[in-house]
Amino acid sequence: MRPVSLSPLFAPIQSLTGIGPRLAKVLGKLLPATHTAPEPRVIDLLWHTPTGVIDRRAAPSLSDATPGTIATVHVRVLKHLRPPRSNKRAPYKVRCEDDTARLDLVFFRAEPSFVERQLPVGEMRYVSGRIERYGEVLQMAHPDYIIAPDKRDELPLLEPVYPLTAGLTGKVLIKASRQALQRLPQLSEWQEPNWLVSKNWPDFHPALHHIHQPSKPDDVSAADPARQRLAFDELLASQLALGLVRENYKSQSGRAIQGTGKRAQKIQTALPFSLTQSQVAAISDIAQDMASERRMLRLLQGDVGSGKTVVALMAMVAAVEAGTQAALMAPTEVLARQHFETINPLAQAANITIEVLTGREKGKTRQQILDRAASGDIDILIGTHAIFQDDVQFQDLALAVIDEQHRFGVHQRLALQAKGKSGGANVLVMTATPIPRTLLMTHYGDLDVSKLTEKPAGRKPVETRSVMTERLEEVIEGLRRAISSGAQVYWVCPLIETSDTSELAAAEERHAHLTQIFGDQVGLLHGGMASKQKSAIMTAFSDGLLKVLVATTVIEVGVNVPNATIMVIEHAERFGLAQLHQLRGRVGRGERQSYCILLYQAPLGETARKRLDMLRKTEDGFLIAEKDLELRGGGEVLGARQSGLPEFRVAEVPGWTDLLKAARDDAKLILSQDPQLTSPRGEALRTLLYLFECDEAIRLFRAG
Fold first, then answer.
1. Which of 135, 150, 209, 554 is the most buried (most CB within 10 A)?
2. What does residue 423 show for φ and ψ, rounded to 5 degrees?
3. Angle, vertex CA 691, rays to CA 689 and CA 692, nearest 5
4. Is the pLDDT of residue 504 over 50?
């Protein structure tokens, strides 16, 4: 179990003074939930670090104050100037002075009694905020702090600035964070002392205090030694966890699964194309893994359109030939049903029974599928996360295939794998997001890797062009000609609906606009729709009933309509490079020439320009992924915002790739010398794993 000393950190956030149910709910929007903790806890505040500092140390006399700057001034309250009753919009002013000049404190929509309590006439007060000049008068609108002289110590001279959300003030977050720091117990050091000295890094406890209670403005910078130290802690925890999961998985005996090859041959004959060399090599790697006595844990990386599904099918067929079952899990219902439609005709050719299970199957239908899976009547079950729910049981699951692995956590992978006999199915995970080597190391350090590097024969390169949004009408005219000659079009927008604060073209607006031009041939697809609606729209597009599909990035992964030959990406400058590449991969799947049009809003920033240039130059997803990493930095590529990969909480720092390599080497050395983490340093490292909630690794200790 978690050490008792850490319990105060894992208490609900409402256990802090001043945090009631309303604030806890607001903080829940700001602090990321995890699968083990849907509600925010005290420790979440420690990892929610400041992004800047407000410097309130300047304490000039009023005559020396510089307009436009933050200042802390010591003033006497002269009088309150209430607004006339006839003009409710007029501000409430409080006139103050020091020995050199006057200052008006200005409040809009103020509660008079509150202001009077804060600023009694004749009393001295410290006020801190931005000073401005209004005509000849100095003003401070809504001071950040109003403090009586005897409470001067309560004024933070260097105030950390935290990311906030609606309904939350910086003052509340500072108070809560300070309480969280007070709950931090003294912990044994888990880093090597010589390593800390060589990097000039502080101990863990001072490092956290240094970031949350800065003593100079650059204390909160990402390059600061304290931040670097905490980033390394997080990276080391993730590398140790991956190493422990891998070693545990590999050390458990599996069973040899070997197919006869007869059904696989029938499927190969039914394929409309011959396998590429890298497909053949990947199928061979997987067959060897499955035939060994150790469990398989392999990542199949394949660029868009490289034929991963066929490789996965061959692996699943081998399991079926050996008299066992296989499952394929996809991140969305659209993708799960598409896999089913792709695989079903091939499976029928080899007399293999497949079924699909998503959130849509309910009642009797769902129960029948569950009964058939449990009895062994279904050879291959395809579905969404519905597959790893407790009531889904298999007679003998020998292979679990997980598509778009980065959309699922390690715990979900373990949950599906545990449905095999003795808790151990072979696992093949797939991704169409080409992953740079550094990120493979970060998030997939526990897997062996196969790569598909070629596209099936006959695929033509997609012609990619950048076009300014000013030429929108020309683009639409070009689409009109293409549609009249039988083409189908994707039109991707980055938002579902317009918001007041965003200039981005919304999918609903664009759909309405294109419907005026092309009539009812235009469909709309976005993440907020019900799954039945999504499926109906996708089917209508696949069947050619719709000629234009306006969509958000819900179509990024796995949608396959060979007749769709044009991809328009609106506000392309707002997308990450890897995501643009994924979207482009939805076209170029048939024999006709395909086009990708990147509509951008001028002027382009330097990074956006490099991104669009790179996309025009190459279709090599692995090259693109490396460039994306270079342009955006590790933290952003790792961030769930763009790529769907898990997001680090502290480790988004300069030089993080070097830190990651060092963490990986350290984790390897630790596990080679102390695989059960029982030495004094090992015990301290167990605490580190708890702090960063590497639950899978911790669960292995509890189990073993």
1. 554
2. 70, 25
3. 70
4. no
Strand partners, 241: none
Closest among 601, 600, 572, 602 to 584, alpha carbons compared: 572
CA distance 704 to 566: 54
Q: Quick one: pLDDT at residue 497?
A: 47
Q: In this structure, are residues 132 and 67 in contact, taking their beta carbons and an 8 Å threshold?
A: yes
Q: What is the pLDDT of residues 647-669, one digit of tens each?
A: 577 877 666 778 888 998 999 99
What pLDDT, on a 0 to 100 scale, did the predictor assign at position 38?
A: 74
Among 371, 308, 320, which Cα is nearest to 557's? 308
**In angstroms, rounded to a whole number, what is the distance separating the alpha carbons of residues 312 and 402?**
9
**pLDDT value, residue 501:** 39
Query: Which residues touch 315 (CB under 8 Å, ≥6 apart)?
Result: 283, 286, 287, 290, 326, 399, 401, 428
Q: What is the CA angle 405-409-410, rounded to 5?
A: 95
- Taking residues 245-256, report their average pLDDT: 74
Contacts of residue 348, Cβ cutoff 8 Å, sequence gap at least 6: none
> Given the DSSP bridges, would you call strands 145-147 and 297-302 parallel, antiparallel or unpaired?
unpaired
pLDDT band at 498 (very low <50, low <70, confident <90, very high): very low
When pLDDT is cut at 50, 70 and 90, the band that residue 437 belongs to is low
Q: How far is CA 343 from CA 328, 338, 347, 428, 467, in A?
A: 11, 9, 6, 17, 38
Tokens of 194: 């010589």
Residue 586 pLDDT more than 90?
A: no
Residue 295 tokens read as 């469990």
Taking alpha carbons only, the member of 538, 535, 569 closest to residue 552 is 569
559 or 86: whose pLDDT is higher?
86
Q: How far apart are CA 664 and CA 446, in angstroms?
A: 12
What gap in Å lies between CA 330 and CA 388, rounded to an integer? 11
What is the number of other CB atoms lying within 10 angstroms of the CB of residue 456?
A: 17
Distance CA 406, CA 506 (A): 27
Among 537, 533, 629, which Cα is nearest to 581's?
Answer: 629
135 Rama sector, left if φ>0, alpha if ψ -120 to 50, beta otherwise: left
CA nearest neighbour of 495 among 485, 503, 487? 503
What local confidence, expressed as pLDDT, does residue 585 receive? 82
Mean predicted lDDT score pLDDT of the chain: 85
SS3 state at 700: helix
**DSSP assignment letter at 97:** E
Q: Which element (helix H / strand E) includes 254? A: none
Q: Inform me whether the pLDDT recorded for 423 exceeds 60.
A: no
Residues with Cβ within 8 Å of residue 147, at least 6 apart in sequence: 125, 126, 127, 128, 154, 155
Sheet arrangement for strand 488-492: 463-468, 595-600, 564-570, 488-492, 548-551, 522-525
Retrieve residue 584's tokens.
């482009």
pLDDT in tens, 167-197: 888 889 999 999 999 999 999 999 999 999 9
SS3 assignment for 514-558: HHHHHHHHEEEECCCCCHHHHHHHHHHHHCCCCCEEEECHHHCCC
User: What's the chain's Rg over C-alpha atoms?
Assistant: 30
Q: In this structure, how many other beta carbons lie within 10 angstroms of the beta carbon of residue 617?
A: 12
